[in-house]
Design goal:
Helix content is 42%, strand content 17%. It is an alpha/beta fold. Helix 3 crosses helix 10 and helix 12 runs parallel beside helix 14. The structure holds pyridoxal-5'-phosphate. Pyridoxal-5'-phosphate binds next to helix 3.
């Protein structure tokens, strides 16, 4: 059975154009910065984000870790959102490898208020760890792909500057945010010191993320990548589909958003589904089932009907649209949910 796989946008397969690009890529040893395809992708990515330089790394997790290690010294305090990917899903590498002290701040919509930051930034004292970095996640995965807007970023950055802190953005899906708001991605990136974005999610690439920032930041991150075992040789085979993605896949994200919206609106009409439509802003749909419904049984029912979803918590389901998910898949998912809950 061919599944309608709504677990994540990471399940996307490369396009034929990407596979052709891999076959024809000009390669070299990237540890010596000699892979022309990697260099081209990095230049394109930096230019798109309005920063000086970029670095290709194998995964979003490594991008975040290398960036944390580049931005901070061991023992320093990092402010991040309590539901962020770095805090939840990156195996605690922020502490065990980077040696940093994560300070989670809960924010109802994924973006903390400047006052919440100010509250933690107490005057220097012998008892306190030194704060050095604020991390933002955009779009926010566990909040259902919600956007941290340029306006919110600007306010956070103003506090950061007042306290000589840096701002880093886990922008795994930052192009989704830009497409959804119909603005250039630089409207977001101009409010952060550095960031990463993933090629391997809605942009459909098989592997890869890019760390972006000033030239100095990226040169230090290159060394951190090497410590983490991410120094790659003929990495042009990863970069080649990345170039295709930046050229052809960004605008396409709009289709995923339209499908997510359609899915959410139709699901919201089903009894037993509780969904806040204003939080469905990009390609992720999360909804709660009535407490009387067993979430695992529901997902099993989905699976038996050829649909895959994820449990985000005990009674919360997450469905993600991506390339390959069409309107008819949305219709089938809704009809199946209706039958299971009816
Ligand atoms: C917001 C966010 N950051 C980072 C990552 C990590 O990316 P990777 O799975 O490539 O390590 C993910 C993956 O889903 C994510 O959603």
């Amino acid at each position: 059975m061919d599944f309608i796989d709504l677990r994540s946008d990471t399940v996307t397969l490369p396009t034929q154009e990407m596979l052709d690009a891999i076959k024809n890529a000009k390669l070299g040893d990237d540890v010596y910065c000699e892979d022309a395809t990697v260099n081209k992708l990095q230049e394109m990515a930096a230019e798109k984000m309005g920063k000086e330089a970029a670095l290709l790394v194998p995964s979003g997790t490594q991008a975040n870790l290398a960036s944390l290690m580049t931005n901070c010294n061991r023992g320093e305090l990092v402010l991040l959102e309590a539901q962020s990917h770095i805090y939840w899903y990156e195996v605690g590498g922020i502490s065990s490898i980077a040696g940093l002290f994560p300070w989670p701040i809960k924010a109802a919509n994924g973006a903390f208020e400047p006052e919440q930051i100010e509250d933690i930034l107490r005057p220097d004292n012998i008892h306190y760890a030194t704060p050095s970095l604020i991390c933002i996640e955009n779009t926010h995965n566990r909040y259902g792909g919600i956007i941290v807007t340029p306006k919110q970023l600007k306010r956070i950055n103003e506090v950061a500057q007042r306290h000589q802190l840096k701002v880093y953005m886990d922008g795994a899906r930052i192009f989704n945010a830009a497409i959804a708001l119909n603005v250039d991605v630089k409207e977001f990136t101009k409010h952060v010191d550095n960031l990463m974005f993933c090629l391997s999610k809605g942009l459909s690439c098989p592997i890869g993320s890019l760390v972006i920032g000033s030239r100095g930041f990226v040169e230090k991150a290159r060394k951190m990548r090497k410590i983490l075992g991410g120094g790659m040789r003929q990495a042009g085979i990863i970069a080649a589909p990345g170039i295709v993605a930046l050229q052809t896949m960004v605008e396409r994200l709009r289709e995923d958003h339209e499908n997510a919206r359609l899915l959410a609106e139709k699901l919201s009409k089903i009894k037993g589904v509780n969904i806040d439509l204003k939080n469905v802003q990009t390609n992720i749909v999360t909804f709660d089932l009535d407490p009387s419904v067993d979430c695992n049984k529901f997902l099993l029912g989905f699976m038996e009907n050829g649909i895959l979803g994820l449990a985000a918590s005990t009674n919360r389901i997450r469905l993600v649209t991506h390339r390959g998910i069409e309107r008819q898949h949305v219709e089938k998912t809704v009809a199946t949910a209706e039958a299971l809950l009816g």
